[in-house]
Amino acid sequence: MLYLYMKNGILTAATYVQKGGVGKTTTAAHVAVAAAQNHDLNTLLIDLAGTQNDLATHFGISIDEESIDAPISAVFGDQWELIRNGIDNVVERMTFDTGEGPVLIPADPGLGAADNNLANVPREERYDRLADFIAEDLAATYDFVLVDLPGKEDNIAISGLYAVEDVIAPLRPGAFERNQLENLEADLQEIRDAYPVDPRLAMVLPTMIDRRTTQSSEFVADIREAYPDIAGLQVVSTQNIGDYQEAGSTLFAVDDDELYSTGQEALDAYSTATDQLLQTLRQ
Questions:
Q1: Residues 188-211 pLDDT 10s
Q2: Does domain 2-282 have CATH number 3.40.50.150?
């Protein structure tokens, strides 16, 4: 799910889905690059999805603890004010250039402890720290902030959802594909009921689609039938995504003549999804 909202002149989004292997991080990377390259938005990616730094790997960035002056996990702690006041240009020192337009604040090993520590914060104060960081530290510099959230219902994820509203959900065909749409709606309702957040579905994006299989065709048809107004263009399965991700880039960094036809089709689909996303947000 990709959550969006406009506040204080800044566009923000967060990818989130309670299912692994659906292309969540790949979607975040490609949407961020499309926003930067196709829409000339000053774009920042924040990786909160875990300590493996999948977004950094996606862009070929090597991260170690010594290279991070101020970790993103500090934003969720009680000492953030002291840190931001004690480090000059703190946000710049948190970021790494992706080489494709957006800059990245990587995940760090402290995120697990930060999630645990948030459980000790009073509920009325627990989930607003990321939203405050975006509004107070990022809004003056960036047009678009895209956050990749963990695929589970923890305090870090809820903190991300607290600051946003509209949702795009990347989903792929699989053994339980016909249950995914029902599960998606149920997950959103459970979050609304349990936490002070109100995510709303703005787009469902079919990913890893193989048109040669009946399963994929039926899955895309199910999405279009269930969500005729918010179904995104299908992203076809292509070896190019995995190959270039392993090499440290998105499809946007590749010359068109080096892509398979499926790679070009996936690239176009991510561009179209970003166009649709921004248009929905600005309505």
A1: 899 999 998 888 777 888 999 998
A2: no
